[in-house]
């Protein structure tokens, strides 16, 4: 008697069974961990470079702090009295500039720029 | 409930969340590598391609617009990497490696199956090796990895009609190969540079 049902294809079953078994074995090895470590290495290298550059920049800035203060002093002589009253000294202003540079570095580290 | 691929991609893109991308890697790596191993016949090459695929996906994640599934996008990168590698090496050197590995696998079959070949019959391997790369990719995606024809078309950048043709042709060829008489030792050697089927593009 003719049948209108399609018998299951053993070849497709074989392929699927083989594929699932292989994927199951690959699930248990350490490929993902190795790959994620490599991906993290790129980020760590970036952090290292930025940290080195920041450290170098901070050292240079610190060595120039006194001359920065001296350079700012004449400009502050012309500041309005209300700023003087607020206690904006050359030292404070130089410190603000350095803090701004540090904040910019932090933004770069966060990859905002 | 586990987050979907799209949710993880959104998180990885918006918050630069490495954990979200790591979750995507863990979710897809095994089946992607299984696809590549069966596609190129060389586990080491397959892992290199898989690694490159995830690296590219990581840097190019902003390029994923969510039009299709993340899985299709990922496999499309992998397939392009596979084609690029095959073109770059002109197949010959890789074929030699694959031949050596397959010879070793056949030898191991007689004693003990290797970890990646255990469970796969020599007949099935021979039948797959007899397909060209596009036929092998389509039948692996559609019949083994569970992709729809539409998804496979997107992965392979091929019209839907062509995918259906490739699948039908590949099934016919594989059925014929599986029902054929077992080859003699000489015939059973997997493709050689001379017949070039293993990497035929």
UniProtKB/TrEMBL annotation, chain B:
Gene Ontology biological-process annotations: DNA-templated transcription initiation
InterPro entries linked: RNA_pol_sigma-70-like (IPR039425), RNA_pol_sigma-70_dom (IPR014284), RNA_pol_sigma70_r2 (IPR007627), RNA_pol_sigma70_r4_t2 (IPR013249), RNA_pol_sigma_r2 (IPR013325), RNA_pol_sigma_r3/r4-like (IPR013324), WH-like_DNA-bd_sf (IPR036388)
Ranges for region Disordered: 177-201
Top-level division of the source organism's lineage: Bacteria
RNA polymerase sigma factor 70 region 4 type domain location: 122-174
Gene Ontology terms for molecular function: DNA binding; sigma factor activity
Keywords carried by this UniProt record: DNA-binding, Sigma factor, Transcription, Transcription regulation
Keyword Transcription regulation: yes
Domain RNA polymerase sigma-70 region: 24-90
A Pfam family: Sigma70_r4_2
NCBIfam families, per database record: sigma70-ECF
Family: Belongs to the sigma-70 factor family. ECF subfamily.
Name of protein: RNA polymerase subunit sigma-70
Origin species: Hyphococcus luteus
């Amino acid at each position: 008697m003719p049948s209108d049902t399609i018998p299951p294809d053993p070849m497709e079953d074989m392929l699927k069974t083989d594929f699932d078994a292989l994927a199951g074995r690959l699930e248990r090895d350490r490929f993902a961990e190795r790959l994620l470590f490599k991906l993290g290495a790129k980020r760590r290298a970036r952090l290292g470079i930025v940290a080195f550059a920041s450290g170098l920049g901070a050292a240079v800035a610190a060595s120039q702090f006194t001359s920065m203060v001296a350079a700012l002093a004449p400009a502050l002589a012309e500041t309005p009295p209300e700023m003087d009253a607020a206690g904006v000294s050359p030292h404070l202003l130089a410190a603000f500039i350095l803090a701004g540079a540090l904040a910019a570095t932090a933004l770069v580290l966060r990859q905002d720029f | 409930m586990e987050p979907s691929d799209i949710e993880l991609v959104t998180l990885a893109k918006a918050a630069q969340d490495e954990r979200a991308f790591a979750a995507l890697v863990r979710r897809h790596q095994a089946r992607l590598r299984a696809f590549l191993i069966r596609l190129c016949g060389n586990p080491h090459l397959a892992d290199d391609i898989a690694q490159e695929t995830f690296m590219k996906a990581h840097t190019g994640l902003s390029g994923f617009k969510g039009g299709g599934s993340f899985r299709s996008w990922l496999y499309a990168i992998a397939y392009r990497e596979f084609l690029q590698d095959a073109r770059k090496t002109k197949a010959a050197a890789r074929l030699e490696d694959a031949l050596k590995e397959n010879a070793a696998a056949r030898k191991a079959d007689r004693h003990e199956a290797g970890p990646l070949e255990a469970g796969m019959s020599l007949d099935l391997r021979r039948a797959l090796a007899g397909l060209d790369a596009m036929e092998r990719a389509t039948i692996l995606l559609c019949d083994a990895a569970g992709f729809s024809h539409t998804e496979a078309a997107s992965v392979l950048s091929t019209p839907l009609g062509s995918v259906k043709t490739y699948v039908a042709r590949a099934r016919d060829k594989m059925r014929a190969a599986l029902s054929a008489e077992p080859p003699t030792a000489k015939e059973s050697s997997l493709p050689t540079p001379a017949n070039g089927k293993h990497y035929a593009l």
